[in-house]
User: Fold DUF3305 domain-containing protein from Caldimonas mangrovi.
Amino acid sequence: MAMAAARPSMDVAVVLEREAQPNAWEDWRFRIAEVTRQQDAFGSEPRLLVDDGRIARWLFPALQVALFRDEGEGYYLNLTSGRPVWFVMWRVDDEDPSRASVQAVSLSYNEAGRWLDAQERVDNLPLPVDVTQWLTAYTDEHYRPEPKKRQRPASFVAPDARPGPAGMPEGKE
Assistant:
């Protein structure tokens, strides 16, 4: 039995920034400051990089971005958006709202949409050229958009063939 080829993936690190009292209505504001390729020096555990009392930055290393064939449409949508991006899902700590953590990183527009549908926080940052090329090569090899099918306007369909309220042609109930 032959072994399946390893799934294409890369390890990345995310820098999450927290701003203290950015305005009268917020105690804390978080934003994704950077997504970069993982380096050995980053280690594998999250750590505080800097905290001057107003701005704090945390590094969340060793996050894997893997490519899946069934996410091809999501990669295609990301690439054809005009500005391909990293999608970063993060959460504020339930017990300490001054802390947040990065949960996952994806390149799929559809996966980011599912996260948003689940009420998760998702930010994005532009992809560097080398990652865009990597994603493009994978998408070109594994995804073919379905051709669009033109639907005839209802006014051009015979009245007895038009769908009724339950999706059945009128008069055929």
